[in-house]
Amino acid sequence: MKWSAMNWRAIGTLALLCGALLSGWMMWQQRDRGTATGPVGKRPDYVLHDFQATVLDEGGRESFTVVAPKLERDPDVRTMQIATPEFQIPPREGSQASAWTINSQSGWVSEKADEVRLLGGVRAQSANADGKPIKIVTEELNVFPDARRATTASQVTLTQPGLILNGRGLDADLDAKRITLKNDVKARYERAAP
């Protein structure tokens, strides 16, 4: 029996068709494997480098000023992530209180800029009514600039001339400089230098 050129072409075409169908079926079977589970390629809608920004409250008054090397804004929830920020929180208008300077390794700002979460090596500094320095050191601090409040559930060290307080948890009125440590409070008094 002789095979004609037509038969070889039919067999070749059939083989190619089977190969294509097999390849398609294998790709279909692999479609869900190896896919990422989180958002892939999500990018901020804007990024600022080496910037200073002043944020105003609803009444048009300064809520806070932030200086940092990098800020990224999430386009979906409109929150901001900030690398090594320094926040300046001024006292309320007409108040004689001093401004607060707060530094940390990272920061997060809510959509309406009414909450700031600071993480890693947080250091907050100001001066009391007598002009003496106040310093708060903790690992995380939630600041509400418009309400002039700060809170944390973490370990805190509060230093004033002649006094060092350690405790867990803090609630602070930033204008009145009224700072309350909530739990496990220990005090150490130091004699002021002459």
From TrEMBL:
**Where along the sequence do coiled-coil regions lie?**
none
> What cellular-component terms does GO give this entry?
outer membrane-bounded periplasmic space; plasma membrane
Annotated compartments? Cell inner membrane
User: Which BP terms in the Gene Ontology apply to this protein?
Assistant: Gram-negative-bacterium-type cell outer membrane assembly
Per the entry, what this protein does is: Involved in the assembly of lipopolysaccharide (LPS). Required for the translocation of LPS from the inner membrane to the outer membrane. Facilitates the transfer of LPS from the inner membrane to the periplasmic protein LptA. Could be a docking site for LptA.
Family, per entry: Belongs to the LptC family.
Q: What is this protein called?
A: Lipopolysaccharide export system protein LptC
